[in-house]
Design a protein that fits this description.
It is a single chain. By secondary structure, this protein is an alpha/beta fold. It has two domains: 118 residues, Dihydroxyacetone kinase, domain 1 (Rossmann fold), CATH 3.40.50.10440; 125 residues, Hypothetical Protein Tm841, Chain: A,domain 3, CATH 3.30.1180. It is built from eleven helices and 13 strands. A six-stranded mixed β-sheet has the order 10-9-8-13-11-12, sandwiched between helices. The chain has a four-stranded parallel β-sheet with strand order 2-1-6-7, with helices on both faces. Helix 5 runs antiparallel to helix 6 and helix 9 crosses helix 10.
Length: 285
């Protein structure tokens, strides 16, 4: 029996990949006007971004302890080995809840094998790790072989992204009100990455056309063997620009394999419409 791969909705994988690789996705929640919606269940990203453009300020909530516990128990009863691959613990409390529920379930089912892994990654950075793990599970690899690859991918995953409107990062406490105001006036686009699971601004560029070019330059500097990788692009309801980035990558690096998807509700609630992000490895061996 294959290892069961579980992830949360912060991985932003397309539904067709989730179905093909039999990944169990646990939804985070989005709260709008005191009403709670399951990420990708009761609320889809396109609907969320429309509400945000209309002035709504959503909040988010982690996966509930009960959801974790019931999911772990379901597969423990089937004698399945389990790996939960979590969205960065520095951006959400979800991983820590998963760890606590794992300990509870192991008290009831001490013979079970349950591993939880904090990727310190977000969106399709986490998604590429989940994709790799689920592909190996489908091939029948052992739990230790899969964990080794999860560890490698997590340690070498690059995130490079920009947001269309600094106001959303201001609401989430990522930039000051002055930075958001001045950035909006001057069309300044921040470029950020993820270091040790946290969002870190690395530079600012004026204008959206220049920011995409700069993202590609950073990718060129940090990436290795890019044409042989599966590269991911996530976007805040701007498929046109995501495809523009894809074409730039194909032309410059010869990349053939892409995963492209809209940023889900749990991350999009903080990054906002128009966000663009690219994910790739800085080491492949």
């Amino acid at each position: 029996m294959t290892v069961k791969i579980i992830a949360d909705s912060g991985c932003d994988l397309p539904k067709e990949i989730i179905k093909e690789l039999d990944i169990e996705i646990l939804p985070l929640s989005v709260i709008i006007d005191d009403k709670e919606y399951g990420d990708g269940v009761d609320m889809n990203p396109k609907g969320l971004y429309k509400l945000m453009k209309d002035g709504k300020a959503p909040k988010t909530a982690q996966v509930s302890p009960g959801t974790f516990k019931n999911t772990f128990i379901k597969y423990a009863k089937q004698n399945r080995e389990i790996i939960y691959i979590g969205f960065s613990s520095q951006l959400s409390g979800t991983f820590n809840t998963g760890y606590l529920m794992k300990e509870e379930v192991l008290e009831e089912y001490p013979e079970s094998k349950i591993e939880v892994y904090d990727t310190l990654a977000a969106s399709l950075g986490c998604g590429l790790i989940v994709h790799r793990a689920a592909s190996l599970a489908k091939e029948g690899k052992t739990i230790n072989e899969i964990l080794e690859q999860i560890d490698f991918y997590s340690n070498h995953m690059e995130h490079v992204f920009t947001v269309d409107n600094l106001e959303y990062l201001y609401r989430g406490g990522r930039v000051s009100k002055t930075q958001a105001f001045v950035g909006g006036l001057l069309s300044i686009k921040p470029i950020l990455n993820v270091e040790e699971g946290k969002l870190i601004p690395i530079e600012k560029v004026r204008g959206s056309s220049k920011v995409m070019k700069r993202m590609i330059e950073i990718m060129d500097k940090r990436g290795v063997d890019l044409k042989d990788q599966t590269v991911a692009i996530s976007h805040g309801d701007d498929l046109e620009k995501a495809n523009e980035l894809k074409n730039m990558m194909k032309e410059k690096f010869g990349i053939k394999e892409f995963v492209i998807n809209m940023i889900g509700c749990s991350i999009g609630a903080h990054s906002g419409p128009g966000t663009l992000a690219i994910f790739f490895l800085n080491k492949t061996k």
